[in-house]
Amino acid sequence: MRFERVFAIVLRQFHLMRGSPARVLPLFAWVAIDIVLWGFITRYLNSVAHAGVDFVPSLLGAVLLWDFFSRVMQGVSTTFLEDVWSRNFLNLFATPLTIPEYVTGLVTSSIATSGVGLCVMLVLASTVFGLSFFAYGLVLIPFLLVLFLFGIALGIFASAVVLRLGPASEWFVWPVPALISPFAGVFYPIATLPAWMQVVAHLLPPSYVFEGMRTLLAGGSFSATSLACGTGLALLDVWLAYLFFARVHRRAIRTGLIARYSAETVS
Question: So where are the chain's domains?
């Protein structure tokens, strides 16, 4: 792997954002709106709930973690879609750029963009709504790592789907976090779900994160085994997503799809 080629992917994204404020604004605007909206919702719930019940760490913390996951996934897929919209694939893969280098560039770009959103969320949640991250302790770091890895996996998978089906299928990308959230138990325990949904939930790494978060806030001790299981699933998902992307890319090269990639390409 040549890291200067990875850096070239990241540098291209940087120049795109530097030349277009419209690309910079979504990095923090939507997450800021989510934090403000849910921050006031938690304040209202605290005002009508029984004394001693604090919804800020449970609800607002869940929103923060889920938005971080969404930013990571969309950071990967949006960087990929920039090449879709500009029809730049033929130029990219006419160079010595390899798939591992390209995917690493997508991931590195996502780290930068999701980091901006995370900083905005942390500042708003802590300064405006008093969310204390000491309530989670150091386990917050592995929580974020699991969500980051799963977000990377879904971003790569979504990019492969668009590469396979064509640019018109990009609408598959945007609703993915919303479709997963009922199974991940972002705002409620997994035990609330029907049995078949619980089976799906236990295959999703975020479910272990949010179950662990609620356990800690309830005064319990979080299982390291459960966290390790979530981390293992997330790593497996990253590997499978990469294999899927590489396979789709090989097919696109073999069939000539890369050369005729357009908005009408669906097969």
Answer: 3-255
